[in-house]
Each structure stands twice: as C-alpha cells, then as structure tokens.
Amino acid sequence: MRNKISARGTISFDDVGSGQPIVLLHAFPLSRVMWAPQLEAFQSSYRVIALDLRGFGGSVAFAETPSLDRMADDVADLLDELQIRERIVLGGLSMGGYVAFAFVRRHADRLRGLILADTKVEADNTEGKANRDRLIAFAAQHTGRDVLEQMLPKLVGPETMEQRPEVVESIRQIAASQTSAGIIGALRAMRDRPDSVPSLAAIAVPTLVMVGEQDALTPPSLAETLAARIRGAKLVRIAGSGHLANLEKPAEFNAAVRSFLVELKA
Ligand code: MLT
Fold this sequence. Notes:
globular, binds D-malate, 12 helices, single chain, alpha/beta, 266 residues
C-alpha cells in the first residue's frame, strides 16, 4: 500500500507487492518518492518497502541528537511492526547507503542481501565536516529547493542535465518538499557518522555495489574500493549516469538489481 505511517506515527513508507522483502533507503535531500521507478519495476515479483528516513517526507524529525544509527533502528522497528521476520534485501543510495552501513553494524542478522548504490564507506574528513557546517547554516535560512540547487551540479550527471530536464525537475520537486529541520538533522547525522570500513569485513551476505560512471559525489574509484573490501561483492557501473543512478538511468539500474535478485534466489 502507498503512503502508510508506522504505528508509533514516526515513519512514513510505501509497502507494495509480495514476496522477498526489499527495503529501500533514499538519498539526501530527497525522500522515498525517489524510488518510484523501482517500486514500479519490482512490485510484481517482490515486496518493496520504501521509507522516509527520519526528518524527510512524512517521517518525524529527530527529537534527540541526529544519528544514522537512529535511522537504521527506525528500519528495524518498522520491520518488527510489519512482522517481517524473514531476512531482507536492503538497498541504500548515498545517504541511504550510510544508513545501510549502520544497519549492518546493528542488525546484520536481518539481512539477506545488500545493494549499495552511489555511496561510500568512509566518514567525512575535516573539509567534508566544514562543508556540512556551511550547508547547515545555509539550510537554516533557505528552502529544501535552495539546498538542492547548491548540490545539483554534483548530484546529477552532465548527460541527465542536458538531455533529461524532466528528471532534474522531479528531483527539484522532491527536494522542495523537505523541511529545513529534516535537512539539518540529516546533515548533522552524516557529519558525525563513523567510518564504516571496520564493519565491511562482517558483511556475510551477497552484495551489489553500483555507481554512475559520472558520479561526482561518490565517484567510481570509491565504489571500486568499497566493492573490493566486501567479500564476493559485485560492482556494476551505470554508463551515462551521475550520482542519482536509480533516477537518471532507471532501466539500467533496475536490470542490475533484477539480475542480483535472481541470483540471490538461485
Ligand atoms: C546523498 O546523495 O545522499 C548525499 O550526497 C550524501 C552526502 O552528502 O554525503
């Protein structure tokens, strides 16, 4: 069903289809709406749950110190509420990937497989943290759409920017619905996130790493190191895509996910 809200009233989510559960975690500063092409593609064969991370879409903002751990625990709490006891395939893009690493640290026994798209495992360095602080100050005075405009040149690839204005516009629309409080909470959580490199050795499930070849935020070199550090991980590069590969090249993105899921079943 579309547009549900968790029993505690904290997390909004879509829950469509039936079969092996796949849970999708969105990028910053977007919401679960970005997964529309994947809900469409996979709901006939799988149960697909796309949720709004804390502070985004219809989910409540952080009441306590913002953390990716809290976001990961929200995912586990939602699985409990939905009585999903079988192991899930967890997919995260960029910030969603950071939350997936937190989930690996805290709830690894609930995983059947991992999809890590356009993300990185390293914590922010000093310059990265200073950039977060600058964007926090900006977000306090501006809208979600303004924040998006600051990021846009790096968020989508040149091909999408030139040839697919409707995709860029839909990304703008999603960001425009996000609140300053949600955006600032996520920036603080990302700024303060730990290095997840030590957790990678513990990943014992099949893992698909994906990256847009024109990703300027988490470039292919980072995806290569990430895939090399996870036992048996498969790396797929998406040609002609920037950072938001699931939206920029949905057919190619979905084809890679589909063949990963089929191999998981085998
Ligand atoms: C995202 O796409 O989620 C962000 O670019 C992640 C980040 O700012 O580190």
